[in-house]
Structures are given as structure tokens and as C-alpha cells.
Design goal:
Chain lengths: ~325, ~270
């Protein structure tokens, strides 16, 4: 593992108070910049001396990026700098989107949820320790994946979506937002341009870009997330599986949003994270469930469909059974 | 400008990782300068007079320059090469798409075309027509002198292939073989159905050289493609380009641009040429 040092390599610290200022600074420094949200992942990178940005842009003072507001179409708009504790505890989130509140409430520890932000949780880098040790793997710009060899320790790595790199996305809130069909708003080019991405498109795999986990490029800023208006008769499910009950990243997590028509499932979205470099939308499983009763039999068939393309590494074949059962429960136990 | 990328491996060794992708732009700039320099400085070839009737005697109007097999190889290699270059360099220029599988499948296609070419050359053609001999060196020297306006004398007519085409062929052979050989090795680092993934068949230092050679060959191909397309579309070379499409050249072009003693047309009353 990398050696954590007492002193961080020097950088220029910028503390903008407005979105425009932040975007101007990001545009000015682009690849030399680092966006500091809650700082919980950033300082590990800095102390390991693996990331050495010349300019750190601390968004902590940008009030416009914080808060939960009613959206234009009856949904919710959540600022990227809203703390995870605020997302988990907000009444409107808890009432209309309980799976997001639950996902945010299961991140790490209460202290980390108070400091950590929704944007930081979504845009965080992978936890692959080969990558985080600063070795020249594909994701770090090199030409090897140290986690995908016959000798590698890859219990936590992916069973789906690998393309040279086998790291997984660690975000807890990401699958919830994919299941909710949320939209991520990204400002770029100093604020001249704003683009909305469906949550499923916001996260990208190594086949598209092996050095990034999201569409965010240097100079870009995730400003807010918009949740669509809740539909009556919806059922939700979220579950996070981890090695210990607190302060741990998920081995796998599942989020589902079911739209009911009487007893049957009219439409649904299921997303699983921790099994691929991005939160996986389980469209094959969704097709199995659509129009069916959300019972154990349907859940089992959905689980089987979800893992059809899974390819385990040497030490993570347990994730196939885990994902199959998570999807099964996400259909059967959604409430 | 950085030329090679280096990194520390887990054992603390400073190893090569690959070439700097800034070299892509260097290849484009060098290619553009070559094209501009050639277009501006090299005098256009003056049209020669009517062909010698004695030489034209008995020659068919259409003379086969590229057989169907040779053309099939050229155009299939063109497609494979185009796909390889697009999938290799577009993602580096910011155009993102899942390129790895397309890239190695195109590489596999390129290997098949090269194997066919080798078979075709040795079984159906005379590989010596592409050989560089003393007369080709002399032709090159006199062509250069003419290009630099050091002489008014035209260089001698070549055989089937002019010296510049032979040199291009050999340069393309070197970079293609380099890219293919290193590309096959690199397939041990990715997951595919042909054989198992094993990144430890070579040391990190050796892998570094594999990636450097692959990168240099790929970047070299950018320059060669620029030069090839430029010559293919130059007005005085278009008859040659057409022959790669329809296979034949006109008798007048043959006599104007080739030495009948060095490229002997074997079927004087047909359309066969050796």
C-alpha cells in the first residue's frame, strides 16, 4: 500500500463562494485542478502523494450548490454539495424517494455523512487498492491491470462490465439514482455550457474511458441532481451488503423502483452497484419482471437474468450468487 | 515535448509505459509539412511525347497492373488499417467509444490480409518486382536531383514499381509487422476468447518496449497514410490509383512510366502482364 505521509504536497487553495467563480477557476486550471467537496476521499489521495493537483478548488463555501428544493415538474432538485446526512434526513426525500434516503443513510458513518456530499459520493474514484497504491495500472495511465491476473487479490472487483480494468464503482447513492431515473446536471467551459445526463449515462465504464468513472472531465462541475416527480403506486427497495455493519464500502448494493398496475408490475428499474465499474442497469431482469406478479418466482427469474453475462475473477465468484439474490429480493420485497 | 512515458512499478523500478501521445500531433505535423513541401517544391512532371511506336507494337490497350487478388488485399488492408487507426487514436483525441474489441478484431483481420498477401506474392507473383536493386538506388538519386532542380535530365523509367513505391512498401511492411507482432503480444493483457489473459509472460521492462514499439509503429502509420493518400490523389499519379480500382493501366501510361525491358508484358495480344 502507499505510504500515508504527514505532509500533503503543496497546492494553491481556492475557496470560491459562487458557482460562476468556481467554474471560472475550474476552466482556468482544468487538468491541474482538483474539486474538493467533502474532502473525505481527496485527503487520502493527497496524503498518499498519488494525486498532486496544483490547484484545489474547495466548494464548501458555494451555498448555491447546497440544499434540497422542489423541482419544476414536481420532483426534487438536490445540490451536489448537499451533505449525505441532509439527503438521508430530509423529509421530502424520505417521503417520496425512500430508497435514496436509505442509500445515503448507509454511507460509511454518521461523521462521514455529515461531511460527505451527494456530489462527492457520486463522483468518487474506485477503491481498487492496486490503483490507489499509485501503481501504473490502466486506470492510472499505464498498461496493465494488477487486479485481473491469476495471482491478484480481487475479491471486491467486478463480475460485469470489465474492459482491461476490473475496478468497481463504490458509490451507494449511484444505484438509487439510476433506479429513480434521476438526471445529473453538469456545467462546463466556465459555465457557458450545461448538460443534463440520465443517471445511467453519467457513469462510464473502462471500455469508454479507462481513466474516469463518470462523464466529468477536467473543468466540469456536477451542480445538482434532479429527481422526477414521484408516481403513485410505486414500490422501492434498497439493500447494501458489506463485510461489516458500519463504515464500509459495499460488496454489492441493489436499488429498485417498481411501478405497479394493480398486483402486477407495470414498469420497473433495477440497478446494482459494486459488481461493475459503473452502476449496472439490469434491463434483462426488468424485462423478465415487467407484467408479472412481484413474487419470489419472478424475483428468482429476474436474478438469473441479471447474472447471465457475469464473469467472475479468481476470488469473487460469490458476487454472482450475491447479485442474483439481491435482484431477487429487490423484486420480491419492494414496498 | 515528452517522447516516452515512464512510471514506477510496484517493485519500485522505473519502467517504460509507452510513447507520449503528443507524438500523434507530431506525426500529423510532419505529414502536413511533407505534403506541403512536396506540393510546393517538387516540379510537376512534364507530359512526355507520344509513345514510341516500336515499343507499342503488339501491346494491348489495357495492361493488367494489379490482379484481383492483389486489389482485394490492398482494399481489405485499407479497411483494417482505417479501423485500427480510428479505434487507436480517436479515443485519445477525446472521441470516446468502446474501442478495444473492435481494435483487436480489426488487427486480426489485418493479420489475415498480410498472410494472404505473403502467400499471393510467393505463389502467384514475382516478389523480386518489389526488390530494391542498384538501378532503383540510381533512379532514386536521379529523381531527387531532378526534384531539387540539380538536373533537367529525367530519371530512367522504372520497372513495374518505381523506387519511391518500393520504399513506401518496405516502410509500411516494417511498421505493420511491428504493430502486428506487438499487438499479438498485447492481446495477452486483455480478455478475449482466443487465449487466456496473462500479463506476466514478459517483465515490466519488456512490456514497456512492446508498448513503445506498438505506439511508434501506430504513429508511423499516421505519417505513411498521409503520404500515401497524398500521392494517390496527385493528378499525375491518378492513373496508378485507378489501376488499384479497375486493375489495368492504359498502354500509353505503361510506355510513358515503365521500362518495357524491366516490366515485360508477357501476353502482348492479351491483357496479361508479369
Amino acid at each position: 500500500m502507499a505510504v500515508i505521509r504527514d505532509m500533503i504536497a503543496p497546492f494553491e487553495l481556492y475557496q470560491p463562494t459562487g458557482v460562476d467563480d468556481a467554474l471560472r477557476l475550474l476552466e482556468e486550471h482544468r487538468a491541474d485542478s482538483w474539486v474538493l467537496a467533502g474532502g473525505l476521499d481527496s485527503f487520502d489521495w493527497f496524503k498518499d502523494r498519488i494525486k498532486r493537483p496544483a490547484a484545489v478548488i474547495d466548494l464548501g463555501g458555494v451555498e448555491a450548490l447546497k440544499g434540497i428544493r422542489e423541482g419544476a415538474d414536481g420532483g426534487l432538485e438536490i445540490g451536489a454539495m448537499t451533505s449525505l446526512a441532509d439527503v438521508a434526513g430530509d423529509e421530502s426525500v424520505r417521503d417520496a424517494y425512500p430508497l435514496l434516503a436509505e442509500a445515503a443513510g448507509l454511507v460509511a458513518t454518521p461523521q462521514i455523512r455529515n461531511q460527505g456530499t451527494l456530489g462527492g459520493n457520486l463522483a468518487q474514484d474506485t477503491r481498487c487498492w492496486y490503483y490507489r497504491s499509485g501503481w501504473p495500472c490502466y486506470r492510472a495511465g499505464g498498461n496493465i491491470c494488477y487486479a485481473a491476473t491469476p495471482q491478484s487479490m480481487n475479491r471486491e472487483h467486478c463480475i460485469l462490465g470489465a474492459s482491461r480494468c476490473v475496478a468497481v464503482n463504490p458509490s451507494d447513492t449511484a444505484p438509487a439514482l439510476v433506479a429513480l431515473d434521476a438526471e445529473m446536471f453538469v456545467a462546463r467551459r466556465g459555465g457557458e455550457h450545461q448538460q443534463a445526463y440520465a443517471a445511467a449515462d453519467f457513469f462510464i465504464g473502462p471500455a469508454i474511458d479507462i481513466t474516469r468513472m463518470t462523464v466529468l472531465e477536467p473543468g466540469d462541475l456536477l451542480t445538482h441532481v434532479v429527481l422526477p416527480a414521484p408516481r403513485p403506486g410505486a414500490r422501492w427497495y434498497f439493500e447494501k451488503v458489506r463485510d461489516r455493519k458500519s463504515w464500509d464500502f459495499s460488496l454489492a448494493s441493489v436499488a429498485s423502483a417498481l411501478q405497479m398496475d394493480g398486483d402486477r408490475v407495470a414498469d420497473l428499474r433495477i440497478s446494482v452497484n459494486g459488481v461493475a465499474p459503473y452502476p449496472v442497469r439490469c434491463e434483462a431482469a426488468e424485462a423478465v419482471v415487467r407484467g408479472q406478479l412481484p413474487d419470489d418466482e419472478t424475483g428468482l427469474a429476474a436474478g438469473e437474468a441479471a447474472v447471465e453475462d457475469a464473469r467472475p475473477l479468481r476470488h469473487n465468484d460469490y458476487k454472482i450468487a450475491l447479485m442474483r439474490n439481491l435482484v431477487r429480493r429487490a423484486v420480491r420485497d419492494a414496498a | 515535448m515528452e517522447v516516452l512515458r515512464r512510471a514506477l512499478n510496484p517493485w519500485g523500478e522505473d519502467v517504460l509505459v509507452g510513447v507520449s501521445w503528443d507524438l500523434i500531433w507530431a506525426a500529423v505535423v510532419v505529414g502536413a509539412l511533407f505534403v506541403a513541401g512536396h506540393a510546393l517544391l517538387v516540379p510537376k512532371k512534364k507530359p512526355s511525347g507520344p509513345p514510341n511506336p516500336d515499343e507499342a507494337k503488339g501491346l494491348p490497350e489495357k495492361i493488367l497492373r494489379h490482379s484481383t487478388g492483389a486489389r482485394a488485399f490492398h482494399w481489405s488492408m485499407t479497411v483494417a488499417m482505417f479501423v485500427l487507426l480510428v479505434t487507436a487514436f480517436f479515443p485519445l483525441l477525446g472521441i470516446r467509444f468502446p474501442w478495444v474489441t473492435i481494435h483487436w478484431i480489426a488487427g486480426f483481420g489485418l493479420i489475415l490480409t498480410v498472410l494472404y498477401h505473403v502467400y499471393h506474392v510467393f505463389a502467384k507473383q514475382d516478389f523480386r518486382t518489389m526488390w530494391m536493386g542498384r538501378r532503383d538506388v540510381d533512379e532514386t538519386a536521379r529523381t531527387l536531383k531532378k526534384a531539387l532542380r540539380a538536373t533537367d535530365e529525367d530519371p530512367p523509367r522504372p520497372g513495374k514499381y518505381p523506387a519511391d513505391q518500393k520504399m513506401f512498401h518496405h516502410a509500411a511492411t516494417v511498421v505493420t509487422v511491428g504493430a502486428v507482432a506487438t499487438g499479438v503480444l498485447m492481446m495477452f493483457r486483455i480478455d478475449h476468447f482466443l487465449w487466456g489473459q496473462n500479463p506476466y509472460i514478459l517483465s515490466d521492462a519488456a512490456w514497456g518496449w512492446v508498448y513503445v514499439i506498438h505506439g511508434i509503429c501506430g504513429i508511423g502509420l499516421i505519417f505513411l497514410v498521409i503520404a500515401h493518400v497524398y500521392f494517390a490523389i496527385r493528378p499525375e499519379k491518378r492513373w496508378m490509383t485507378w489501376s488499384m480500382i479497375n486493375g489495368w493501366i492504359h498502354r500509353d501510361r505503361y510506355l510513358e512510366n515503365h521500362d518495357p525491358e524491366r516490366w515485360v508484358v508477357s501476353g502482348r495480344d492479351g491483357d496479361e502482364a508479369s
